[in-house]
Amino acid sequence: MKSQPIHPDFDRVLLNEKEIETICKELGAKLNKEYAGKVPTILAVLKGVTPFLTDLSKEFTFYCDYEYVASSSYHGGVVTSNWVEIYLWPRLTLRNKDVLIVEDIVDSGLTIQKIKQKALSEGAKSVKVVTLLDKPEGRKTKFVPDYIGKTIPKLFVVGYGMDFDEKYRNIPYVGVLKPSMINMNPKDYPWKKGE
Ligand code: PRP
After folding, report:
1. 161 lies in a domain?
2. How many angstroms is it from 1 CA to the middle of ligand 1?
3. 128: in domain
4. What is the pLDDT of residue 79?
5. For labelling alongside 5, which of 14, 100, 113, 131 has CA 20 to 30 A away?
């Protein structure tokens, strides 16, 4: 696999493509043990989870269904808010299902707590959570994910699905933006040119 040079808006890479691949293989092996002989429903939390969901799913050896939930907590900013909105939920019931929630990052824990409670209130048989990144220093709840790819310090990270102003989700690694990008007047963002 040929790696791209680091994006000019990035200060540094926190998790490169090779490290992400290794994490997906390790988490996949653990989940294959957890769900051997079961048919879980994968409940993927949009939008940030999509690259991780794709790569992690390639490791699964069990049968599974896919459902999607969408929520918003950052609301375009760099810090998570206390208000979590669920704006998409599966039509099919989660009743009696073994549900595996897949997340890109757990920060305050408010999003995942709300989604897990909603799945349990629908009568899910079991609910487990796998996340690529865990940021325990950001926690506003006591939530602990069942499976964690990497624990990171309290940094605002983008790439590999994660965004700043909805951008950088396509970058194949996780990194930290330059302070000049974060502090830039929004009207000067490179993607605003020509508007
Ligand atoms: C991010 C991330 C998690 C959530 C974590 O999503 O994908 O779902 O925030 O934050 P929390 O633990 O503090 O609740 P976001 O709300 O930015 O939506 P997006 O994935 O569509 O960008």
Report:
1. no
2. 29
3. yes
4. 65
5. 131
Question: Which of 50, 68, 74, 162 maximizes ligand 1 atoms within 8 Å of its Cβ, making it the mutation to test the pocket?
Answer: 74
What's the pTM value of the predicted model, to 2 decimals?
0.94
Looking at the domain assignment, is residue 113 inside a domain? Answer: yes
Residue 36 structural domain: 16-152
pLDDT along the chain (195 residues), means of 10: 81 97 98 98 97 98 97 68 86 96 96 96 98 96 97 96 96 97 93 81
Q: What is the rounded CA–CA span in Å between residue 68 and residue 45?
A: 6
Residue 74: CB within 6 Å of ligand 1?
Answer: yes
Does residue 166 form part of some domain? no
Distance CA 27, CA 109 (A): 20
Residue 165 Cβ inside 6 Å of ligand 1? The answer reads no
